[in-house]
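Justification of computing resources. Each target in the renewal requires a structure prediction run like the one illustrated here; the chain below, 357 residues long, is used simply to show the kind of job we budget for.
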Amino acid sequence: MKANSTYRIALNGVVACLLLFSSQLMAQRTRAQIQAEVAAYQELSDKLMRVFLNPQAPEVRRLAAADTLVIVTNQELIPRVLATFRNTKESDTIRSRALGLLDPQLVRDDRLASEVVDLLGDVEQSPTLRRASMKAVSLAAVAAPAMIQDAEKTFDVLRTVAQDKDLTIRRGALRILCAFGDDYAQQLLIDGLKEENADLLPDYEAVNLIGLDSHTDYYPDLLKIMQSTKDSRTRLACVNILGPYSEAQPVILGYLNDANADLILRRAALVSTQANQPASFSEITAGLVGDDSAPDALRIMAIQTVMYQRRSPRVRPRNEGELDQFDQNVRSLRSRAKSEALGKVVEDYINRLKIDF
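Resulting structure tokens:
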């Protein structure tokens, strides 16, 4: 018996060693395969890059080669790509594509960054080149925000092109400026929203950009826009911003309780109310929960929100007299919930909060 036990232990040890060895071997093979794939990609990338950089090749072929590339992977080729971008004899399409391959260089090469910003601000340049410049600056703003923030020249150009005739350039400039909380850009958008003939961005986009770093000074204007706009997307964007504004809260509650309002708007109003009026949320939404004509999706959201607000690791049972209107309305749904989803949430609420009596 003892010998058999010893044999089994030894056999298990051998199996464990074999498994460990095989896993290490597989890992080594995987690493080798990955290295081979990287080397093959590098070789292909170099071939395609040389096709793109060959001025004697047909432009269609050069662009087709560039379409497969994302960035310059061979550092030795960067000077040639830079030269292609700077070569005014090349077509604007080729130069733009070269700039797109140099996006990572923008945060490391001050000269290139300055050239790109100048190109963006030069209205005499082609739209193709200026849009490529705008894209490069946008990517740099994400990759190295400090570089953009510390470059006053860049901000000056962005503020100038924020009113450019080209929508792509306007949009890119305003997005960067608003992401950095630029007062000039935000005021420009507010003024544009108040002027019906302004042509900066679609209203809902403008409101969303203001919301990236909204100032309370803009709340009264946004409230007027929310109430007057006929565009549902703009109204929705305003609801998402104006939750903290006490003057807007009754209007937002009106959207929540409006049976004719779009469900997306009512859901946004519910989320806004929960985020900005958590202490009174159950009181505000008790009527909604008890209203059988209200969408189940809204009632479920309200019940789940209050359940998580009130749930604790040690919930004590309560007696009948301690139930508020929200509790009573949820409990009454046990017998009349029409959908399985609503019924499940009601049962969950009753059981978790121990009001099953």
